[in-house]
Fold:
Amino acid sequence: AFLSGNTASISLQYIDPDNCKQFASRSINVYETPTADFATDKGVICQDSFVVIEYNGNITTGGNFDWEFGTDVVAPGNGSGPFDIEWNAPGPKTIELTVTKNGCVSETENFNVTVQPRIEPVEIRCEVEEATLITVAWDNVSNITDYTLIVDGVALNTTDLSHTISGLVPESTHTFELIANSNNACPGTSMAITCLAVSCPATNID
Structure:
């Protein structure tokens, strides 16, 4: 075995039965086996975000970098980086790297990334508008923990899909902001609406 980074010399001397001598030698360059180590800035990202990747193995110049990011990668990077990687769809992803230099091939290194789905827009509506009562409602949004409903500046957390306020003054307006609170790496979404406590129509007797 030879130490990497050195030039080794192999010599051969041959003597035949008539005492004739032959001599030959050859120099062999011994190269260090490259490593495919790389670093990422995070292992869990939102579908709208990206991972920053940078090679940090033992190759300082040259070399060939064979990256694999999966079929739904947006724009595969190349070289030693750093570069950004993002994917079209949520789910588990695997980043793999194999490095080659001077005919020597590294072992394959890999890193798993979880891409979490974006939070869908939340929509709140004035479901019931009466003289002294208003009910707001909304459809369920997936991948969230709960909702924060801000009613006229006062916040409350709920897992319900509707909320009613009563004892209102007819013709008064009330603001509602609904926030879907995320339970993953993607930000929550919100929507605001104003509802009216509708007066009862006038009654006339003829």
